[in-house]
Amino acid sequence: MMNDDIGMKKAPSPVDRYVGSRVRMRRITVGMSQEKLGEALGVTFQQVQKYEKGANRISASRMQSIAQVLGVPVAYFFEGSPRDETLAMAVGFAEPAQSEYRVDILSTPEGIALAKAFTSIEDPKVRRRVVDLVTTLVEGQRKG
């Protein structure tokens, strides 16, 4: 019988991918390159890429360092993360799973442009109106 850990690469978990995408989103929002983040952390930009893709898990101490460099609390990286539904459903606390894990907005050029533009809006009321506009467009798309 073959051990699953030997010779087989395990796919990143949805939480690892999500946390990585939040690192990427914050890094881009503050205008920092992967190279600069890597320098601040004492790792290569390739390692930063692996963190952002969820290919390599981020240790607790590294997560603390990333949060400090990017100016956010550690909790920021987990806000809205997918939960471990398998465990939750096993004990009867989870709702049925929604659709498959959504594509990271920052995986597209449009998403990056939208995130940069949105984060440059200083007036919170204007940001709220942008969110309302997008929500209205999505609702219209569902009806049509």
Key features of this structure:
single chain; 144 residues; mainly alpha; 434 Repressor (Amino-terminal Domain); 7 helices; 56% helix; 0% strand; disordered N terminus
Structural class: mainly alpha
Q: Percent helix among the residues?
A: 55-70%
Cα distance spanning the termini: 53 Å
Largest sheet: none
Question: Could you state the oligomeric state of the chains shown?
Answer: single chain
Number of helices: 7
Order of helices and strands: HHHHHHH
| CATH level 1 name of the largest domain | Mainly Alpha
CATH architecture of the largest domain: Orthogonal Bundle
| Gross morphology | globular
Task: Give the tally of β-strands.
Answer: 0
* CATH T-level topology of the largest domain: 434 Repressor (Amino-terminal Domain)
- CATH H-level superfamily of the largest domain: lambda repressor-like DNA-binding domains
* Count of the separate structural domains: 2
The gyration radius over C-alpha positions equals 18 Å
Strand content: under 5%
Mean pLDDT, all residues:
80
Poorly predicted ranges: 1-5, 84-102
Short recap of the structure:
With 144 residues, the chain is mainly α.
What does this entry look like structurally?
It is a single chain. The chain is mainly α. The chain has two domains: 7-90, 434 Repressor (Amino-terminal Domain), CATH 1.10.260; 108-144. The chain is 56% helix and 0% strand. It has seven helices and no strands. The chain has helices spanning 14-29, 34-41, 45-53, 60-70, 85-90, 109-119, 124-143. α1 (14-29) packs across α3 (45-53) and α2 crosses α3. The protein is globular, with a radius of gyration of 18 Å.
